[in-house]
Amino acid sequence: MKFISNSSVKDVMLKEIGLNNIKDLFFDIPQKIRIKDLNLPDGLSQQETEKKLRYIACKNKSFHDITSFLGGGIKPHYIPPFVKSIISRSEFYTSYTPYQSEASQGFLQAMFEYQSIIAELTGMDIANCSLYDGVTALGEAALMCTRINRKKTFVIPENISSDKKSVLKNYTRGAEIEIKEAPYDIKTGKIDLDQLKKNVDENTAGVYIENPNFFGIFEDDIDKISKIVKGAGSLFVVGIDPVSLGIIKSPGEYSADIVIGEGRALGNPMSYGGCSLGIFACKKEFLRQTPGRIIGLTKDSDGKRAFCMALQTREQHIRRGKATSNICTNEGLCALAAVSYLSWLGGGGLEKLSKINFENGQKLAKKIESIKGFEKMFSGVHFNEFVIKCKNDAKMINKKLLQRGIQGGSVIDSWYPKLKNCILFGVTEMHSDADIEKLVSALKEVSNV
Amino acid sequence: MYRSAVYDKSLLNEIAPPKKGKIKSIDSIPTSLQRKENINIPGLDETQLVRHFHHLSQMNYGVDTGIYPLGSCTMKYNPKICEEIASWDNFACTHPYQDISTVQGNLEIMFELERMLCEITGMDYFTLQPAAGAQGEFLGMLLTRAYHKFKNNNERNEVILPDTAHGTNPASVTMAGYKLIEIPSTKDGTVDLDMLEKALSDKTACFMLTNPNTLGVFESEIIEISKMVHNAGALLYYDGANINAIMGKAKPGDMGFDIVHLNLHKTFATPHGGGGPGSGPVGVNIKLEKFLPVPRIAKKEGKYLFDYDAPESIGKIKGFYGNFSVLLKAYIYILMMGRDGLKEASEIAVLNSNYLKKKILKSGKYEMPYKELRKHEFVISCEKLKQEKEIRAMDVAKRLLDHGLHPPTIYFPLIVKEALMIEPTETESKEDLDKFIDALIKIADEDPKIVKNAPNNTPVKRVDEVSASKNPILTWNMI
After folding, report:
1. Which residue in A143, A208, A252, B381 has a CA-CA distance of 20 to 30 Å to A167?
2. pLDDT band at B307 (very low <50, low <70, confident <90, very high)
3. CB–CB contact B95 A103 (8 Å)
4. Nearest 5 degrees, angle CA B231-CA B237-CA B239?
């Protein structure tokens, strides 16, 4: 039988331990609940399986089949093939949590390097070696703020993804944290500072902003925001798109306390939204309140440099009900992809990548804006995503684009009712000038229909 | 004799020290945000980089290296075909917000996987959203909360657990805001029905149980337990970490469980990835369906779609639809194994475990408290070795590394002194099991000095974990 080594010797093994039948191993299951068989089909051979999956795969269209301009927290990025080669080393991907340090030095060092690079990227002192995704990282950050300062409200911008809002609500339900939303400025698309001020007070555990925000716009009033947050004695939590950090400041430079983000863009495929990589970094003083696994540098009994899991007393396998989080399995392999990708790019490469993303964002927005029936919704400067308001029905426009082999941006009025017929477009280094032209000329056609 | 590859590995920043330097800022970016200096991350050329990580991989032990019998982790072989297919563009390069007509294949896989998991567990509905087992547990607690709230039972704020529970159970319970009640096990290592009866009240929201439990013992009184829990008005939660023991033999749904989580990275052979990604789908019976996360995957007139119309839903627990590539790999695994394959996987997993157990105990070097018959895992104690030779479970584990064998889980569950928790899985051959047995017996007979100084054949010798926490150095800037 497939992947089962001892099928042919099971009788020998049974005999050696004094049993006659496999059934003897299962007599402790009460008769009443024993079943004979599962109602599943016969197994397929590897060849048959591959054929079946090819057939199913044909029902999908990949980024390479349709020119796609989607964003909303996930965008296509180039993955140099060596990344796959590294994460396909099976000593890495078939291992688990490095409970036995001496047999896990490779993965441990790679995670230490990941933490070091994430700390540099975010401008924080320390980072953990991953959470599930950027969305749950926000939930963990809110819980951590409350653990640190015992305050019970958490302020977020109105314009974060609906997934984030929902997950945050679920993560903070148990700790009874009240979530307050600070509206965005309908002109600029940035957070409304007066509204933010109104929402933040001495009971505010933490304030979250995203840079760039969900509309793709840079929150550039960072000094004022930081002043509001710190003035109330709250913690400042910043969400990042790592791709943008080659050209804009790290949150550490504008006094963030905790930095979170989605790190999938760093060498990991979109894979329909999963797998993902939750980035989590913070100031050193909060170390003991951090959720998730952290790798530390130490020595072996010969005094040689070695790595191991550090501060395990925060974690569930030691602290149980009093752990800082319930997380155990994380996204280690995605973090490995991220550290190999980033250390190939280097600081200079990341700057170039950021620039291309920014420039493509500007280029596409300008071209769409120049078409009759489309205008930019917000005046704030954007990165590689932006919101376009359509004169005509946005859903219909997308439908017509699809007929022309193009996947348009996301129609966002179901998330933001004020933004009727608005589309969030995303563009990256993956889009050539020809791709951009294809969208622009298609939009010209459909706007006339 | 086993010898691991050893490299004196420099860190990335030592190989290629990052070059600091001013960068030309972009005028159209608001001045307050313009970056002035390069980010301090090293840039290696591809050859250096690939060699660096290649060397690191050679200093790491995985299932492809050898037996990896971590109890409750189900470290089985990960079929290569699953990795290959998951990397195809038509899966890997799809965006979660694509028009539904362009991702019918993805939805078909998720829809079918939900049906398969329902059949395996006997539950009515599944969600594939949770990213790991612990997140599945947390979702289970949120569903419990939503259920009692819907029934206006807001005073139910306690969750009961046996003392053998996985560490994530209590952590998930408190994270969801519940009060934790832990009950001691019987001398058989099973749920103490009297203690359970005493703990149950009109404050009980849920009883969480792993079956077989972390000792590897099947909770034979499960039907009685289910009656007691439900009579008290509480829900019964199944931690599916150990379901590799009973596929095709019994279903949690038939045992009376209301909520079940599975770990696709354990039972369904998707790789553990050095810590993740995993996937922790959650199944429920009909009374909890309406609280499941959105979107649900539906099929109408031959087309798959997402259904967000669920007013009682708890909302979302993770971004998008879960760790899709892991779901895909598990789907492929189940297709290949089929009805008979999954059943035989459980049979041989239990056979391998009992074979190991019997032969190790026969040596008389180790003891096994609690009940005799075990399922896919068992827990032995090194207490005798500690008393006689001052050899502790930790020492045995480290000495196993010198034999090129990955040690079992140690010091868990907490009710066994000097515990070695061993789960071989069905993918280990008899030869490899015999090697493991021989090594454990040999270690018990060795000079304690050698055992206490182990390991010697690994890339580093015994690692000082205490100072790693006392004086934490967590980035290269902190060195």
Report:
1. A252
2. very high
3. no
4. 150
* ipTM of the complex, rounded to two decimals: 0.98
Residue B206 tokens, joined: 């849920």
Of A321, A342, A363, the last residue of a domain is A342
Whether residues A127 and A255 fall in one domain: yes
Stated pTM of the model? 0.98
Angle, helices B133-150 vs B168-175, to 10°: value is 40
Residue A2 domain flag: no
**Ordered DSSP codes for A327-371:** --S--HHHHHHHHHHHHHHHHHHHHHHHHHHHHHHHHHHHHHHTS
Average pLDDT over residues B423-430: 98
- Residue B106 has its nearest CB partner, among A45, A272, A318, at A272
Q: What is the mean pLDDT of residues B232-261?
A: 98
Nearest Cα neighbor of A265 from A56, A426, A58 is: A426
**A399 lies in which domain range?**
67-79+348-448
Looking at residue B160, the DSSP 8-state letter turns out to be: E
β-strand partners of B14: none
Residue in A closest to B77 by C-alpha: A3
Domain end among A311, A342, A373: A342
- By Cβ distance, the residue of A102, A296, A402 closest to B473 is A296
B463 DSSP β-pair partners: A300
Say how many C-beta atoms besides its own lie within 10 A of residue B20's C-beta. 10
| Identity of residue A269 | P
Q: Å from A352 to nearest chain B CA?
A: 11
Nearest CA in chain A to B472: A296
Q: In 3D, which of A398, A269, A266 has the Cα closest to residue A335? A: A266
What amino acid occupies position B212?
P
3-state secondary structure B232-247: CCCEEEEEECCHHHCC
Phi, psi of A47, rounded to the nearest 5 degrees = -65, -45
Domain count, chain A: 3
Do A336 and A252 share a structural domain?
yes
- pLDDT tens digit string along A182-195? 999 999 999 999 99
Considering the domain architecture, whether residues A249 and A372 belong to the same structural domain is answered as no
**Are the beta carbons of B92 and A349 separated by less than 8 Å?**
no
Q: Are residues A220 and A230 in the same domain?
A: yes
Report the pLDDT averaged over residues A23-42. 97
% of chain A exceeding 70 in pLDDT: 99
Q: Which two tokens stand for residue B56?
A: 């690191």
Q: Are both A296 and A437 inside the same structural domain?
A: no
Of B122, B377, B79, B375, the closest CA to residue B248 belongs to B122
Given a contact cutoff of 8 angstroms between Cβ atoms, the answer to whether B277 and B131 are in contact is yes
Nearest CB to A92; choose among B57, B278, B477: B57
Rounded to an integer, the average pLDDT of A416-437 is 97
Mean pLDDT value of segment B396-424: 97
Q: Check whether residue A276 and residue A404 sit in a common domain.
A: no
Our CA angle for A411, A416, A422, nearest 5°, is 35
* Residue B287 CA: distances (Å) to CA of A86, A233, B145, B151, B291: 46, 45, 13, 11, 9
Q: Give the three-state DSSP class for B374.
A: coil
Residue B463 DSSP symbol? B
**pLDDT confidence bin for A449, thresholds 50/70/90:** low
pLDDT cut 70: percent of chain B above it: 100
What's the rounded Cα separation, in Å, for the pair A211 and A415? 19
Q: If one looks up domain B71-458 in CATH, what number appears?
A: 3.40.640.10
Q: For residue A116, give the nearest of B51, B462, B41 by alpha carbon.
A: B41
C-beta of residue B131 within 8 angstroms of C-beta of residue B322:
yes
The yes-or-no verdict on residue A1 having pLDDT over 60 is no
What single-letter amino acid sits at A268?
Answer: N
The CATH number covering residue A164 comes to 3.40.640.10
Measured between beta carbons, the chain B residues lying within 8 angstroms of A109 are 9, 11, 56, 59
